[in-house]
Amino acid sequence: METGIVERNYVNIEDEMRRSYLDYAMSVIIGRALPDVRDGFKPVHRRVLWTMHELGNTYNKPYKKSARVVGDAIGKYHPHGDAAVYETIVRMAQDFSMRYPLIDGQGNFGSIDGDAAAAMRYTEVRLHRLAEAVLADIEKETVDFHPNYDESLSEPTVLPVRFPNLLANGAEGIAVGMATKIPPHNLTELVDATIALIKKPSIAIEELMQYVPGPDFPTGGFIYGREGIRQAYATGRGVIQIRARAAIDRVGRGSQERDAIVITEIPFQVNKARLIETIAQLINEKKIEGIADLRDESNREGMRIVIELKRDAVPQVVLNKLYKLTPLQTSFGIINLAIVNGQPRILNLKELLEAFVDFRREVVRRRTEYELRRARARAHILEGLNRAIDALDVIIPLIRNARNVDEARRWLMGDLATIKEIKEWKGANQTAANFVAQIEKVMARLRFSEQQAQAILDLQLRRLSALERQKLLEEYEQIIRQIAELEEILASEAALRRVIIRELEEVKKNFGDERRTQIVDEGVELRIEDLIADEDVVITVTNSGYIKRTPVTTYQRQGRGGKGRFGAAAKNGDFVEHLFVASTHAYLLIFTDDGQVYKLKVHEIPDAPPAARGKAIVNLINIPSDRKLAGIVAVRDFSDDHYVVMVTRNGVIKKTALSEFQNIRSNGINAINVDEGDALLDVVLTDGKKRIFIATHDGMAIRFDEAEVRPMGRAARGVRGIELRSGDYVVALCAVSKDDHERMLSISEQGYGKQTPISDYRLQSRGGRGVINMRTTEKTGKVVAVFPVEDDSEVMIITQHGKLIRIEASEIRKTGRSASGVRLIKTEEGDKVTSASLLEASEPDEVEEQMESVH
User: Fold this and answer.
1) Class of the 34-160 domain?
2) Which of 349, 423, 499, 577 has its CA 20 to 30 A from that of 643?
3) Locations of Acidic residues compositional bias (predicted)?
4) Contact 187, 100 (CB under 8 A)
5) Domain at 245-327, CATH class
6) Full-model pTM
7) 788 phi-psi bin (left φ>0, alpha ψ -120 to 50, beta other)
8) Region of 33 on the Ramachandran plot (φ > 0 left; ψ -120 to 50 alpha; else beta)
9) What is the pLDDT of residues 408-433, one digit of tens each?
10) Mind telling me the catalytic residues?
11) What are 156-193's pLDDT values in tens digits?
């Protein structure tokens, strides 16, 4: 009995594990998890798009069942589970996942709440129109193809994208020992940066960042700080902070009205439903206080999460806690890892764009070579057809006498060996021998190629008409021009770059859009002003110290002499004493009659309807209860070239640089030293180049150059501005220009008013008695307000009982200084005008539309 000896090859297990693991790792890295730097796709994305292209499932064709696409993809190219392929299709159709979706889906494709898409048998898909720019020219041999998994079909190794898709839509994947996380960007910005790189190959990353300032997420939001963006663009790695877009608003009506935080955009990849659950959990655990209600009011028009606050809650504080404790603020770690020439590499911004440009250059070159080959082949055939048409008298009998197509083709190619065997030449008027000799002579000169001979045999008789022959000539001339253009592209790098740039500009024109994600400069924290609309509001302050703000559009414009509408209702003898207009993004410098100044942000003033009283100002700033407000100035920047001019009731004036009021303590600082028995009356802001206009209660006024009042420190008393008669006092302080184009509007206690050119008030020296401003009588009452107006100005007037009216200045009569004016508002018995203010001009139609929406 013989025993066989089995020969075994032993392998070191460590070597085998190392080799097998490396093979597995490279398979995952190259074939599954990481995108190609050229087209920005992983194999599964590429195969899905190619499958839909093969199916003719384009944007201008009917939708097809998702199951059909999935079946073709896994059956032909992607031998993996159908769930993975369908998930890929779903993601490429979600506008909250892809900055530029490549698939147009019909049906339930999930939501930002994390809801799963419907089963593939229920949904339908087709390529998005943008996919045209992804698959354009793929049939023109622009990219390489390789066999599919069973070598029965071929699939593209890369898609000939016309825009930097890797950066436009981003990518995310976890491979073996490495991961990629590339954020999406704005297509318009990417195209501009790519064109700049093509025109200037030596461009620096800092210059590219002028075109691409940072990522642009499909869900919007804010990016805070540019340092993380700079690191990512310079090194390929960086971390950025993303915050939701929220706003402080008022919700509810009447007594139920309160502050609320309204969220309209959330960070990228944050699940809205889980976000709301997290907030609710924190409320239940009392980690966040001050929230009265939480509800999701999102609909098909957009996202809206309303966080209603308790009455004593400070919105900014609550919002900051939400940012700190919830996914309303998240970090996004950028890793620009992609496959370059078959190897994974981390790339900076310029390298990513250079890789695309190099790929695009290769695609355009290969497409041009393909089109040139086709053009030359067509030109060759057209040349043969044109020569054949010129020799029809010989070619037609030649074809008629051929025994078959192959013989006719050989004869047209010049192989006339068998032609002499023909005894009788059909259709010839000469003897066969003589005519054959003529044929041989002509064909020796023409001698068509095989392609030309076949085209001649395929030529239809209708092409022999004069018009069709002319079309052939025109086509030939056009092909010759096309060949010249294609040859120029291949011969000139500049021409090739022009083609790439032109196609990039076409993509930008057709698919470019505005940036969605706002970038806040480095070191700038989110201010509450960033969350509040920049709009003008009417601020009213009552005699007893109640303050509120109301949108200007709430007050409807009326004609002169109207009854007005009720604003803040008088209560316990209280009445509106100050009224003016300011932006919600401005600061208020609040001056009290004792010369102190306090600072308050406009948006911190409670928003209330016109009939509401408002909130006690002592609850907002630390003003002593026995002090009265003298003046309020709205400012945005505390610059050195602007000044605060103050005047007291007894006519003392003082000018101080605005920059001295930048740092104001919560309990205020001293603005002017006021004499005993006097009080600060009014305050204005100037640029140092104005003229000062002071008006008194008894109808006097003085005008002098602002230069006559030198700047003084905050501790100074001031100088005399106007000499007052016994019993008279200052009621208004104005800063007017030197070109004398203004008209001064004076308003009296009984609602009379008039406009007078500023030039009627002669220029005097500071400290004089002035001239008559308005003739006051028992009918008109004393002067209560004076300020400059123009024809398109609007004026708001308020009475002691809280009645308001909004009228155009153009409706008020223009008269001289000594006139009494015309009635502007009807005052009831016991009522009188207490304040008036100038509003910004608005278009009448727009205001009326806004009024209708308010009422």
Assistant:
1) alpha beta
2) 577
3) 842-855
4) yes
5) alpha beta
6) 0.62
7) beta
8) alpha
9) 888 788 777 776 666 566 655 556 66
10) 122
11) 999 999 999 999 999 998 877 788 999 999 999 999 99
